[in-house]
Sequence to fold (470 residues):
Amino acid sequence: MPAPTTASKPANDRRFLGRLSLPERRFVADALRTETVGGVLLLVAAIAALVWANSPLKDAYAAIRDFHIGPAALGLDLSIQHWAADGLLAIFFFVAGIELKRELVAGELRDPKAAALPVIAAICGMAVPALVYTVVNVAGGGDLGGWAVPTATDIAFALAVLAVIGTSLPSALRAFLLTLAVVDDLFAILIIAIFFTGELNFAALGGAVVGLAVFWLLLRKGVRGWYVYVPLALIIWGLMYNSGVHATIAGVAMGLMLRCTAREGEEHSPGEHIEHLVRPVSAGLAVPLFALFSAGVTISGKAVSDVFTQPVTLGVVLGLVVGKAVGVFGGTWLAARFTRASLNPDLAWPDVFAVASLAGIGFTVSLLIGELAFAGDPALTDEVKAAVLIGSLIAATLASVLLKLRVRKYQALCAEEERDEDHDGIPDVYEEHDPEYHLRMAEIYERKAAEHRERAQLAGASRDEADRPA
Fold:
């Protein structure tokens, strides 16, 4: 994370989980606010699905979930569940693509040195859960096909947990969790594209590539209007679905094409503007509906006990709870150790472990990968979904306990971050610890004063011209 600017800070010192820059802090706050609301809706949708699927109305739930709709001639006669997983989640991955592009060009990932730590943490946070799953299933004679299920992190669900428990997590920890999730999403996308692509239809794939090229060209030419891009995006999505490549990849590709750097005269880049418009649709509609039609599994005492006795489901639970925490924490510690990055003195390594435990909440993408991995076995698919739900619940509980132990420290840090005694809209901590701040403010004031004097002189000259006799 970016280090705070201090007069005495050595040039070669790198601070991990230090204070964010003020613009980055504001961006993270806005992004996390939307994700938190979406996470709460996701939580409500998941609970509603479980209650519905285990109520006397469970037959109605199954009938709606399996109801097919769509043009069969275009290869899109899909069930409601598939429309949610393949269609609505394309919106979620479109936003993920924009987030990734922004991180690469304007966020934490633009600097290779700063990016090394969250990237290594994310890689270890996916490799260790996969290893845990593999070891459990090799030892128990289970199915190795689900190795990717416990590798994903659900940032919306993780932030919903934070909202529910009311933890005042410092902005640096929240930003680390967000960056970690963005990198995690990237590798999850690669896993889906590489390992869960079926038999390829090269004609449809070629059409999707041509559509993406047209999409890119229109963006470069500065063409505007949703009525141009939305129909084109639907065509690209339909072609990608029929190509055999998972349709959500189309969303990622289009998100990565958007420009995420602001030009002169622009308050926000096109990517940030579109993300601001689409994120509420993703977090408030697409992901909750996916959860509603994917999380509805029948839960019984025997089903719960089977989760901890069958190698496939036990591997998923241990991968999420143990593998994620150990992987993210271990990767972070190793990266900090070998890049000589020092931990923010206001925080401690147990704080990092608590956030690493939150990464074990692998709801949305884990459910999706579970459906893809065991598509031919509906019973096993439901068991894996139950394991994802139970593993995510255990990880959320563990993280909540760990974060509650430090809640007073976090509240004090957040209060310090928010303190603004001069009411100028800029937290005092950014002024007190930056010796160049007042010099920059003086330069800005002088520039504005010069512009004001110049406008006054021009206005005076115009009046003199008007008063002069013809």
The CA atoms of residues 70 and 77 lie 4 Å apart. The beta strands are 14-16, 68-69, 78-79, 341-343. Confidence is low (pLDDT under 50) at residues 1-13. The domain at 14-196+288-418 is CATH 1.20.1530.10 (Na+/H+ antiporter like fold).
